[in-house]
Amino acid sequence: MSGGHPKNHLQQIRIKSGITQEQAAEYFGYDVRTLQRYESGKEFPDQECLMKMMELYDCMAGELLPKGRGEAGGTIAV
pLDDT for 60-71, tens place per residue? Predict the structure, then answer.
């Protein structure tokens, strides 16, 4: 990752939590490249990974969703 501000909200939440990509990937049991795809928006984590993110990053499910996703009354079963 180059300098500057994180481009993706998942990356922002992880950084705000003080966790590196390597630490998060190990916790989730994923390769760092998988986490990079989530953070770049190329892929979206499944429900199990979202649950782990909520636990590791100490945040709510709504914070992990991209802007506009879930705002129309959609929910995530957790």
Answer: 988 887 765 544
Give the whole-angstrom CA distance, residue 11 versus residue 64. Answer: 10
Q: Are 26 and 19 in contact (CB under 8 A)?
A: no
0.90 surpassed by pTM: no
Task: Output Rg (C-alpha) for the chain, integer angstroms.
Answer: 12
User: For residue 8, with 0-12 CB atoms within 10 Å meaning exposed, 13-18 middle and 19 or more buried, which class applies?
Assistant: middle
Cα 34 to the center of its chain, rounded Å: 11
Please measure the distance between the N-terminal and C-terminal CA atoms of the chain and give it in whole angstroms.
31
